[in-house]
Design goal:
CATH class of the largest domain: Alpha Beta
Strand content: 15-25%
CATH superfamily of the largest domain: Response regulator
Distance between the termini: 121 Å
Shape: globular
CATH architecture of the largest domain: 3-Layer(aba) Sandwich
Number of helices: 36
CATH topology of the largest domain: Rossmann fold
Largest sheet: 7 strands, mixed
Radius of gyration: 32 Å
Helix content: 40-55%
């Protein structure tokens, strides 16, 4: 028995010892495990009432500060962003959701966001931090003063009351003679009312009359703004009003059409077309807002904070626009002192040469004066007309379009005003090198004052043919290295060429992946600029004892196969450099490289947006701008031989992600907009599309990239564009006009999602059998003119009218439909429509003469692509015959229209953008019915209705916009 007990105790002792060892071992493991656990991050939420540049900057500042403080996870899983997109119903839904969420802190951006969430949060009392609020004390959320005891204990934040009075004082200083300023505002917004009160005080002080127009939502802004123009305002102010700010681009565009500047309390608006913006730097305000949230997360209570007014003031002036407004508008020394120092310093270095002033003083302009100056005013006096600038390019793609925009920006930076000092016309060979000589000969016959050469093939062709006309080069390889100039640089050529930093680009790739030994390149061997880049790359690769594999392609369809070939031969990184074909079809290379995990490094920084891993090279916009400044000097009278042929001045560097483990951002969606022609209606639709997508909260360059293509009224070009769009496999194709829609239906492919606008009848165009039963990949907004309404207006304003005349285009389905619909509408009032066909733009003049010989009492011109460019001629013929002209397009009022009943094409673009955003966010086009634009406006020219004895009823006058040529 003793032996049994002894053995049992021994067993127990062994078990206990083993257990102790296991426990100690496990304790150590638990310690290790605990030390490896990441600290738990708080759950955060940001509520934004709408997407405006101001609020977007505020939210950006919040996010950057929170991230820098370590409160945002690498994958951002602990923070949620909410955007009501300006809709109060949505905002209330978001607020209720947030009160019931697991968020530790809710941060709101804007007064309306503060008010909406504060109301929903009264009982839950979740910690709430606010910012971007004009007047927190008047917001009605329980804030009665600055002290901690004077606001709810769970609420903290900063106020930012905009410097409204100072903005008006600056306006008056810029133009002391200004008397009338207009404003669109929403009386339902407390922050807007607070700013209006300040504006009224400022206007009283400065002797300005403030003309107010009310808009309670964004759909009312257009008419409100137009009512201000009819009342003779000399400037428009946009203050702290959410509705007006959400429509700022619309207001700026409308004001621009009427020759009226806009000033705001948002400095970023100066870059969007406003004359100036004076207000807070909202990115910094966002950081201040985040600082409060960070302090609370670190243990401080919201009840410990004072409510301070924070205004990191910033003034930005659009000097290009200022120079176009005339001699009354000037920047004084006191205003210059308010500008950012770098801007003020740069301005002091400018040398301005005013041809008008010098001529008045009898001073002869010397070549030395022209060469020394970098800003030229009244340059049109030199030739007595706007200078003719011809742009010739081999092909059209987004990078080259940016370069051309840069050229124009450089000209405008140099003081030139479009339409006054110069007129620009573009020519493209659409990728066909053989077409370049014919294009050049056609351009030479037009005798331009300067030719801008874009792309190396264009440069080579122009250099061989153009000997007298000044030529400025941009986006080209070094012509000297290409041996283009056999006897030295010609006296008529200057410009800017590249020198791709391929050595540094290869080093960037090696830094990204130190194991790289084999590089690949795809290029077009027919382009000398491409060959030159490949030769340079071979030398770089050889010097580093690496390997280069090459493949050539002669068209876009071959790029994918060529890329596969270099990957099969062992390329572990791809270099893209100075090749027009590769730039145009980059998507084809990226589609092959991306699934294989092969990085792409480019000398075109813009290609990073399309998927390149890293880039080092020329910004095409900056390149164009550098050339544009030379164009201005040439137009001013500086001989090209006195100007340089030099390299690009700067390079843009975009490094790849330093760590492959870093979460990759989602690839931006690819959007294409296709226009059939460059008409006013098409441009308005385009502006509406662009603004509407931006208004949705999506950010260009981050969430999407957009490319606009224009067929310039040529059907064969339109066909080529659709082929390119199909090959590019865009996420969404947006088309403007019936021809564009029909071409897309034929050639873009059934897999391409399409949203249209500016189309008379999408069903008759072939997109479906009804507005709800249509092709599964298509939706959009039709812009059928208000024919019934126009027939009623004609009957009411000219009751004696029995016959109405119009021109129409039999080859355009929308034109035929419009003619038939208008005929039916008029018939209901006993009025006959007399329609004369036109088959080409050359026929418009004779057809208008023929129409006016008919037994008609007025001309009412329907809208189509053929007659629109020649409308001024139609109106002139009608006036010669003593007949008024009624129109369906408000842009035609300036060319002779008497009365207009029209759809607003900008609004039609906005409405189409709403459908586009639905598609981009996952809704199938087949589930989105077609719809006709809801916008409508009535306009009249008071002088013309008096001339023709037309009487308007009070009901018509009450809803009308009065048109004046100003």
């Amino acid at each position: 028995m003793k032996n049994i007990i002894k053995d049992l105790w021994l067993a127990i002792a062994l078990i206990a010892g083993a257990s102790a060892i296991l426990l100690l071992s496990d304790l150590e493991q638990r310690k290790v495990g605990k030390s490896n656990e990441l600290p738990k991050l708080p759950q955060l939420a940001i509520m934004q009432i709408s997407s405006t540049p101001l609020l977007d900057k505020h939210v950006e500042g919040i996010l950057d500060a929170l991230q820098a403080a370590g409160f945002i996870a690498e994958n951002r899983q602990n923070i949620k962003l909410y955007n009501a997109l300006g809709d109060l119903t949505t905002a209330n839904t978001i607020a209720k959701e947030l009160t019931n969420s697991s968020s530790d802190i809710v941060i709101t951006s804007s007064t309306l966001a503060l008010q909406t969430f504060a109301k929903a949060n009264q009982h839950t009392q979740k910690t709430h931090v606010f910012g971007a609020v004009t007047d927190p004390f008047g917001a009605g959320v329980g804030i009665f003063g600055k002290e901690p005891s004077m606001h709810p204990p769970y609420l903290a934040g900063v106020g930012t009351f905009q410097p409204v009075q100072k903005a008006f004082r600056i306006l008056k200083e810029l133009n002391p003679s200004i008397k009338k300023v207009g404003v669109v505002w929403n009386p339902g917004e407390q922050c807007s009312e607070a700013c209006i009160l300040e504006a009224r005080l400022a206007c009283k002080e400065t002797g300005i009359t403030l003309i107010e127009a009310v808009a309670t939502n964004t759909s009312e802004v257009s008419e409100a703004a137009r009512s201000l123009f009819s009342k003779g305002v000399e400037a428009i102010w946009i203050g702290g009003d959410t509705v007006a700010n959400a429509s700022s681009l619309m207001i700026i565009n409308l004001a621009k059409q009427n020759g009226i500047p806009v000033f705001t309390n948002d400095p970023t608006d100066a870059k969007s077309g406003a004359l100036f913006g004076l207000g807070a730097d909202y990115y910094t305000v966002g950081k201040y807002t985040a600082d409060i949230a960070i302090a609370i997360l670190n243990g401080k209570k919201p009840s410990e904070f004072r409510i301070e007014n924070v205004i990191p003031e910033q003034l930005e002036i659009n000097k290009s626009l200022l120079s176009q407004l005339g001699s009354k508008w000037k920047i004084t020394d006191s205003i210059s002192a308010l500008l950012p120092k770098v801007t003020a310093a740069a301005e002091k270095e400018r040398v301005i040469l005013d041809f008008e002033s010098l001529a008045r003083k009898g001073i002869t302009v010397t070549p030395e004066m022209l060469l020394k100056a970098d800003s030229y005013q009244h340059i049109s006096l030199k030739n007595g007309r706007p200078a003719k600038v011809a742009v010739i390019t081999l092909v059209e793609n987004r990078l080259l379009e940016e370069a051309v925009k840069g050229v124009e920006a450089g000209m405008q930076w140099s003081g030139l005003v479009e339409g006054v000092d110069y007129q620009m016309k573009s020519y493209s060979a659409q990728g066909e090198i053989a077409q370049l000589p014919q294009i050049i000969e056609a351009v030479m016959r037009e005798k331009p004052d300067v030719i801008v050469s874009v792309t190396t093939p264009a440069m080579m062709a122009i250099a061989s043919k153009v000997k007298e006309i000044p030529v400025v080069l941009t986006v080209t390889s070094n012509p000297t290295r290409l041996r283009v100039f056999a006897n030295g640089r010609p006296d008529n050529i200057c410009g800017v060429h590249d020198n791709p930093p391929l050595n540094e680009l290869v080093e960037m790739a090696i830094k990204y992946d130190p194991g790289l030994t084999t590089f690949g390149i795809v290029y077009d061997a027919s382009q000398m600029n491409s060959v030159l880049s490949v030769e340079t790359l071979r030398e770089v690769i050889k010097s580093k004892k690496l390997k280069l594999v090459e493949a050539t392609a002669s068209n876009v369809t071959e790029l994918g196969l060529a890329t596969q070939a270099i990957l099969q031969r062992g390329a572990k990184a791809i270099i893209v450099s100075a090749d027009n074909l590769v730039n145009t079809g980059f998507a084809a290379i990226h589609r092959v490289a991306e699934p294989a995990g092969i990085p792409i490094f480019a000398t075109e920084p813009q290609l990073v947006e399309q998927g390149a891993t890293g880039a080092l090279g020329d910004s095409f916009t900056d390149w164009g701008m550098q050339s544009g400044k030379l164009v201005a000097k040439v137009l001013a009278g500086v001989p090209p031989k006195m100007l340089p042929l030099s390299e690009t001045e700067t390079h843009t560097r975009i490094d790849p992600k330093k760590s492959k483990s870093t979460a990759q951002l989602a690839k931006p969606l690819k959007l294409s907009i296709v226009q059939y022609s460059e008409t006013e209606f098409s441009e308005r639709c385009h502006e509406g599309l662009i603004d509407g997508i931006a208004r949705s909260g999506m950010k260009e360059g981050v969430d999407y990239v957009v490319r606009t293509l224009n067929a310039q009224g040529d059907m064969s070009t339109l066909s080529s564009i659709m082929t390119t769009v199909k090959a590019d496999q865009v996420d969404l194709l947006m088309v403007i006009s019936t021809p564009s829609l029909q071409a897309a239906l034929r050639q873009a492919g059934a897999d391409t999602k399409i949203v249209f606008t500016g189309v008379g009848d999408a069903v008759k165009a072939g997109a479906g059998t009804s507005e709800t039963d249509h092709l599964p990949n298509v939706t959009g907004i039709t812009t059928r003119s208000p024919f019934d309404g126009m027939a009623r207006v004609i009957h009411e304003t000219m009751p004696e009218c029995k016959s109405v005349g119009t021109l129409f285009t039999p080859a355009e389905i929308n034109s035929v439909l419009y003619k038939d619909w208008f005929k039916d509408a008029l018939a209901s009032y006993g009025i006959t429509l007399v329609a004369v066909p036109v088959t080409s733009s050359a026929d418009v003049s004779q057809a208008a003469i023929e129409l006016c010989r008919k037994d008609i009492q007025l001309v009412c011109q329907i809208v189509d692509n053929m007659t629109r460019p020649g409308f001024a001629l139609i109106a002139r013929k009608a006036a010669d015959n003593g007949m008024p002209v009624y129109v369906f397009d408000s842009d035609q009022m300036r060319d002779g229209g008497t009365i207009c009943l029209a759809r607003d094409y900008y609004d039609a673009g906005l409405e189409a953008a709403e459908k586009a955003v639905q598609v981009l966010r996952g809704t199938s086009p087949k589930d989105i019915p077609f719809s006709n634009t809801q916008s409508e406006k009535f306009m009249y020219n008071p002088e013309k209705i008096q001339t023709y004895g037309i009487k308007l009823s009070e009901s018509l006058r009450s809803k009308a916009v009065v048109f004046t040529q100003k």
